[in-house]
Amino acid sequence: MNILCKKLKTRYPIIQGGMGNISHAELTAAISEAGGLGTLGAGTMAAEEVEREIIKVKQLTTKPFCLNIPIAVQPDLHKVVSLVFTHHIRVVSLSAGNPAPFIEVLKEKGVTVICVVASVKQAQKAEKLGADIIVAEGFEAAGINSSFETTTLTLIPQVVKAVSIPVVAAGGIGNGAGLLAILALGASGVQMGTRFIATKEAVVHPTYKELLLKSNDTGTTVVGRSIGKVRRLLHTSYTETLQQMEQQGVSMDEFNEATNEVKHRAGAIEGKIAEGHLNAGQISGLIDDVPSVKDLLETMVNEAKEKLSHLQQSQLL
Questions:
Q1: pLDDT of residue 184
Q2: What is the secondary structure of 7-52 as a DSSP string?
Q3: What sign has the CA pseudo-torsion 242, 243, 244, 250?
Q4: Is residue 130 left, alpha or beta, with left meaning phi > 0 and alpha meaning psi from -120 to 50?
Q5: Phi and psi at residue 50, in whole multiples of 5°?
Q6: Residue 147: which pLDDT band, with cuts at 50, 70 and 90?
Q7: Which neighbouring-strand residues pair with 38?
Q8: Nearest residue to 169 (alpha-carbon basis) of 280, 178, 310
Q9: Strand 143-144 to strand 231-234: parallel, antiparallel, or no bridges (unpaired)?
Q10: Overall fold of domain 3-203
């Protein structure tokens, strides 16, 4: 049995990314029900809102799910951590900050802890602190990204070599071939965000899904390099606005306001693509349908098995 599936008690070694404030119970529950690990993102939501979503997830599924806590930006950080215990959440992923103050506390309560990293050094630190699983995210990923700009293909084998706990790859994965490639690199599974947006259960504005379907290999844009706040977005008119702001010498506060969660919701949930941004990874160029979550996961796993069988029968292996 796959070690990641064994630890997470899932059928498939596929995890949903946190997705910040556009994360919602319906998609989280659907992914867990389909055999993956759904993830509810706490984002910058108040603890009361996070709790409402947790309760809704538990009403929709009895399967394991994860709560992602972005440490540096969560305004009710300690209250949200307390919700993990109140609602008996068995898996937590920690991102966007130093996980040291939280890993031991969570593990004492029997919580499986995932740490999201962008380098070998961060992975080794997380393992030393007691993390159970590492999610190593490459530069292909959507949204806020590391200034290291290390690609998934190069990051994963180095992290796998450096730690002894299971490694999950994030960034640039959205089909069965990608899943197989990641497993071949030594990882135990994958984490996906953008691909789950283009599913029937994703409660986002239809325009978001339509633009993902129309995207291509150059359909995403990186903004924020000029101020050290790297973010990968779907290329839209609002992305061009952000680029113009950078060219004119935008301040950190101005950029943060222009890319905050209010702007994210404006684009992703309300469909106001001239007023807010749409997070998207480079995998968007491969997305050409909007299946159910169940069909997506089954198709990915079957494709990975078929690709492996083909390789085994060819002269390559």
A1: 96
A2: HHT-SSSEEE---GGG--HHHHHHHHHTTSBEEEE-TT--HHHHHH
A3: positive
A4: left
A5: -60, -45
A6: confident
A7: 65
A8: 178
A9: antiparallel
A10: TIM Barrel (3.20.20)
Q: With a cut of 80, say whether residue 284 has pLDDT above it.
A: yes
Q: Tell me which residue of 64, 126, 115, 125 sits closest to 90, measured CA to CA.
A: 64
Count CB atoms within 10 A of the CB of residue 140: 20
Q: Which of 301, 289, 110 is nearest to 202 (CA)?
A: 289
pLDDT band at 260 (very low <50, low <70, confident <90, very high): confident
Domain ranges within the chain, ordered by starting residue: 3-203
**Residue 168: C-alpha distances to residues 81, 88, 92, 123, 163 (Å):** 23, 24, 14, 11, 12
Spatial contact of 29 and 41, defined as CB atoms under 8 Å apart: no
Distance CA 5, CA 113 (A): 14
pLDDT digits (tens, 9 = 90+) for 50-99: 999 999 999 999 999 999 999 988 899 999 999 999 999 999 999 988 99
- Cα–Cα distance for residue pair 196/234, rounded to 1 Å: 15
What percentage of the chain exceeds 70 in pLDDT?
Answer: 99
d(CA 262, CA 241): 16
Amino acid at 55: I
The distance from CA 157 to its chain's CA centroid, rounded to whole angstroms, is 19
Partners of 134 in the β-ladder: 115, 167
